[in-house]
Amino acid sequence: MSEKIVIIGGVAAGPKAACRVKRLMQDAQVTIIDQDTLISYGGCGIPYYVSGDVSDESELRATSFHMVRNEDFFRNAKGIEVLCATRAVAIDRQNRQVRVQAVDGGQERDIPYDKLMLATGSQPFVLPIPGVDLDGVFTISNLHRAIEIKRRIARGMVSKAVVIGGGAIGLEMAEALTDLWEVETTVVEFMDQLLPRIVDFPMAAMLARHMRDKGVTIHLGEGAAEILGEDGKVTGVRTGKRILECDLVIMAAGVRPRSELARAAGLSVSPQGAIVVNERMQTSDPAIYAAGDCVELRHLISGKKIYAPLGSLANKEGRVVGDNMAGIPSTFKGALGSFIMKAFDVCIGATGLSLDVALAEGYDADVALTAPSDRAHFFPTEAIVCYQMVFDRRTRKVLGLQGFGPMGDGISARIDAAAAYLAMGATIDDFANLEMAYAPPFSAAIDSINAAAYVADNLCDGRLRKTSIQSFLDWMDDFSRQPDWVALDIRHPAEATPFVAKYGANCWHALPYNEVRSRYQELSADKTMIILCDAGTRSFEIQSFLDSVGLTNTLVLSGGFNVIRRIGVDWYPEGS
Amino acid sequence: MSEKIVIIGGVAAGPKAACRVKRLMQDAQVTIIDQDTLISYGGCGIPYYVSGDVSDESELRATSFHMVRNEDFFRNAKGIEVLCATRAVAIDRQNRQVRVQAVDGGQERDIPYDKLMLATGSQPFVLPIPGVDLDGVFTISNLHRAIEIKRRIARGMVSKAVVIGGGAIGLEMAEALTDLWEVETTVVEFMDQLLPRIVDFPMAAMLARHMRDKGVTIHLGEGAAEILGEDGKVTGVRTGKRILECDLVIMAAGVRPRSELARAAGLSVSPQGAIVVNERMQTSDPAIYAAGDCVELRHLISGKKIYAPLGSLANKEGRVVGDNMAGIPSTFKGALGSFIMKAFDVCIGATGLSLDVALAEGYDADVALTAPSDRAHFFPTEAIVCYQMVFDRRTRKVLGLQGFGPMGDGISARIDAAAAYLAMGATIDDFANLEMAYAPPFSAAIDSINAAAYVADNLCDGRLRKTSIQSFLDWMDDFSRQPDWVALDIRHPAEATPFVAKYGANCWHALPYNEVRSRYQELSADKTMIILCDAGTRSFEIQSFLDSVGLTNTLVLSGGFNVIRRIGVDWYPEGS
User: Fold this and answer.
1) Mutate to test the interface with A, among B21, B40, B64, B520 (most CBs of A within 10 A)
2) What is the ipTM for the molecules in this complex?
3) I need a labelling partner for B335 at 20 to 30 A (CA). Which of A39, A180, A282, B386 fits?
């Protein structure tokens, strides 16, 4: 008798598991149940559909060979039955059957299973504030809502939008609205930076600056308190500080696992509501698997349980479910939360732990912030990129890497290589010798990821003493915060002189990099010298030298002016 | 008393070690000796200098902050003494001194050392054929020769060129000559493919096709037998098959380690002439280090000793030398030979072992050839990329990865991630779940590297039975080679029908992918069906299904028409 496989959820993990298990056991009866009429779509593509990069929603549901993945496709090409517009009401584990009902009502019926998979996904978190039900308030929850957003914009019904939430989806939507449609868009983020917990301050600050330059208004440290409306339609968003007029609100405040069915069936569910699975993606009932946005995963660095609702993980987990249902003991060991995002002309990516998270997790964590060339500096397409490598001082393990640079695949290359290494427990020393493929059009002989590890190595061994961008900006904001600091600007005199002119020699001392060895006697050890250059590399050299002549009261500004410029400040001297 | 550090060789590993050790021990006396007047240059940038992408040779010698790395720079900025135009004549290990002589003659003198480093690099291999001394025959050996090549081209002295050698440098030079200068360029490669041992046939064939499309003439399996000349000037190259007229010859037939000094000093040198070092880059004399193109390394996959003269490795090794000279026990564990190259509008990269090399090394090696989308297939910048994952059937270890695709950093991302994983001994199963950062502008939810691992997994477990591109091309060349084969074309009828019309139903059977489940009774088990689609993915699905209905006599064409099209064939039906 052929095995009965039932899968609840037809977006990412579900169809992947269904197709895999069917290929492995062609005689199995595989059934997918989904409450929606549209299934197996690329949800991560929604911002690009709204922006117009993807012209029709059916492209998000099409295969690479241009067939739309609907019920007919699954039946004819895959031999899989799909019950759309059908809700799974309950799981009867004892009798191994799922009670279902058509979404438009009608009789309930039971579908028997030998093995069941829960791929119930996530639902957007809706803030508990007044006005969320007003017409014009959207979550990015499914393709229907996306179609409606695009319809409204295309018809000229949207001139101002507010995005609540400065995470990836919110920012991608902000770009989509601004870039193609020229909707006046404001992002409101409750935390004091964009992409909180995913990247650290300097990265988030560079991103915010770029998005502002592109016309997106961003309010940080500001929560939405109420959505305002008239005649049932949204008219604005009130924050603690202001009222933002708008005719569209995108609520992008994160997602929560959909686990009601699992909980009601008595399966283990985490306090945060995610279904608990083992490495073979089995729930607490071995006949029931779960994968995708509804499950809890193990973080490959911290070892702790995390919730990482990412489409790429869902697909991998789905394949592992398919394998195990067919008797192949594949495992999914966990996740790093690798992330990447396009924002206008830049991209930002991260893998592993951010510094904030690593410190909160109790690591003896520190960070190497660098701003080198992304390829041979003599190659015409060279550009500056910024990397932030998070590491643990005690074990020398690398905990994470963040990157910010021009739009392209260069950041991916470093983030992905780091992810592979992190999954294997690599140390700073491994990263120092990571063999990135080199030719001048692609990388530098010492790749930016190696260079970041070099900085981490010097920090870890106490050879490099630094201050952070944040501390430096604070000082520039108010010199009295660090009254014993003085800038030591080792850049070319053409760059340094305007700063000396503006801030005075007491505050800003200039001594060119290649003259320090012959003129260091001009320097005084009375104050803490903050050594400044473009990337931080020359500053470290100078710190080493000054140490050797007894001028040890120095700190290097990590990342240097390359990062400062990208964050944007208002204290540059005129004309510099 | 300050330590005396002497470094012989001032291009890559030498200066890197010098700067590092000086930073770590500011009181050390560090001296670099080089026979050339130009030092510390990016030799890998020479093709881009010749092409004009880099306008002036000094850019190859400049720092990212635009200082030229000459003797003054090293003295003033780094505190390092450089003796240019000075040849190291001999090493007196007993008395720890190096005998040197100015290149223009003059007195020999001894320079004492406490620690010595050999960074003597490599020299181009000059074929033992007549005519190599003719005016107009160049190796890419140093910046002076590059300057002279560019001078001749810029003055219109070169209209036709022959490049001897189809390795990376030869091909980069061929592009440089053709692309900007429109020199009629012919590449002659002795082996039957470009980039032999670095990539396997399908990859090399796609590269050759692209370069030919861009105007480079390529003769494979053809060695240069003689360089012809008149009045001392080159006029042509005679191969076994033809005479190629030219006024410039680039000899790019590989390089050999420069180890005469080491050998004369009694240090261990490999049979191939590379200096033997341990993981701390020490030679057989613990006071003498060596790094860069003159040393032998351990291959991180095979464990065997290899010669990998790559600028990126030289720099990393140099830093390890600097560390160890200063008492930090850093190690350099070996290399994978990661490689990447731009060729006009495409790039090609590889890391680890090629299939050819893996088989020669005795692995139970096989290969997964794939041709997926490089990012979400609905994203506008999507393109097809081709990957070849080499693996060992017995251990399921991945041995190498090769990639071919549009110029950009997308291939780097996969090759570099693979390199990190390979260095850690990753298996097919690790690659299947490698967490590549995902968003539609950057990758597919199932990244191409995961997809390659999926194919490898199916191959390794015997679920996927395939034939190779080479075997298929042979069959198309002469059907009698495999008289029991028949093509089963599952592509869209619009694609398949012209093939059926041209080759006849006995030879070419068409049955669309999504109709196989309902029409498989039309198929016969008499012949071996070669299942054909664009990428190979659908073909595997169909093979699985046909197995389940007893039609087991099938093979999947790995890589499918996506690879075939990129290799280019003359047997396409007209108008298809």
Assistant:
1) B64
2) 0.96
3) B386
